[in-house]
Input
Amino acid sequence: MLKLHNTLSNQIEEFIPLNKDKVTMYVCGPTVYDYPHLGHARCYITWDMLYRYLKFSGYNVTYCRNVTDVDDKILAKAHHEGKTAEEISSRYYQIFAEAMKNLNNLQPDFEPRATKTIGEMIALVKTLINKGFAYEVDGDVYFRVKNFKEYGKLSKQPIDDLEAGARVETSSKKENALDFALWKKDEENGYKSPWGIGRPGWHIECSAMSKKYLGEQIDIHAGGADLIFPHHENEIAQSECANGKQFVKYWLHNGFVTINKEKMSKSLKNFVTINSLLEHYDADTIRFFILTNHYRMPVEFNDEALNSAKTGFKRLQTALDEVLSFAGTENLAADEQSEEVEKFKKAMDNDLNTSVALSVLFDLATKANSAKADNDKILAGKYIATLKMLMQVLGFTCKKSQMSEEELNKRMAEIAAELDFVDDKTLTGYALIEKVIEIRAKARAEKNWNLADKIRNLFDSVGIIFKDGKDKTIWLEKE
Output
């Protein structure tokens, strides 16, 4: 039985969907005004992993992840760059979508944009006004927090404490400092509404989109821990007051990614973009790094940790490549009832204990290698097929790794006579190719295009291509 930590109760609870084997799952998506960073990678890899595991466990899952494409930050970026808000949001959504694909995250069943759900937002605001939970002032509409007695139940902050800590600006039109915007007057960038030209507040967007695509009640609402208050708290207030029923059964939140013990964020200017990260580490290494840690715990980012993850994942990938080749496709049959699969399920059912689940993968890799050493193709095939199945449940690509050093040396030997620009003739394999990349980088910096092109062409002739990134060149085997 799957058990998950519910932020609402602050307890680990048995997961019982509202509708038997059908699961509705909503994850707060990006505000598309800048490049996605490692913090986003952690969030969306985590919930991609849950989505995959729920499906593996036999649930019929409907996954919705929104796109916030109307927001103050988007408008500010558009103004700064002299572009329209739509141009900014479209550009950064494409960058986000490509990053998700490169991280091997599955596409959600629904990915609605806020700008395409304005009508539903207006309808929800009208309902809240009619029920006395919201009020309009000069084209702005605010939620009346004091009328929702359970406000603060998710973040465990009593409303009296919140009111005591709040301050009302002199020019505020609010009845109460805690009241938050459902609709904002904006005659320049807005949409028609009963209250004049304006645009929705951030919180109402998710309430409207989750209702449209998943219904008034959903099983799982997930996101980063930084969204608990005020965003998710406000979603609860809006949705439960408008619909008259519990909004979400299980609230799940992933921990922060930190750098030097500080949360990674754009406001602190200490973030690492997904694109720049993928120039140095592959998607499987990044996922391994994230899943080594429990999803609710903070993760400290540094190159040492990622290099360790790279080494750890390479052990799994090497076993997968070598044993798959040994066993042959005719012997590949995953054992879904095996002891290892049961251990994997037990770990994942315990609030998604991925570190223990990964240890099961290493056990399978070890057993597969032992079977290979014993020349037992049937047993090796069973273990390695089971390993591949469980790796895919966690979202690893299971793509063949780069060529072995033996294969690399073989290919390099074919062009050795042409490597007259390498002084150290003792270098072989990976060390040699890294040296060649270094020489080529220097040649490019000195605008020695003849040498740079010669190196590229030599390696291209044996099926090795160079990919030049902003700060580093990597090499890949041609597919």
Remarks:
- DSSP finds 16 helices and 15 strands in the chain.
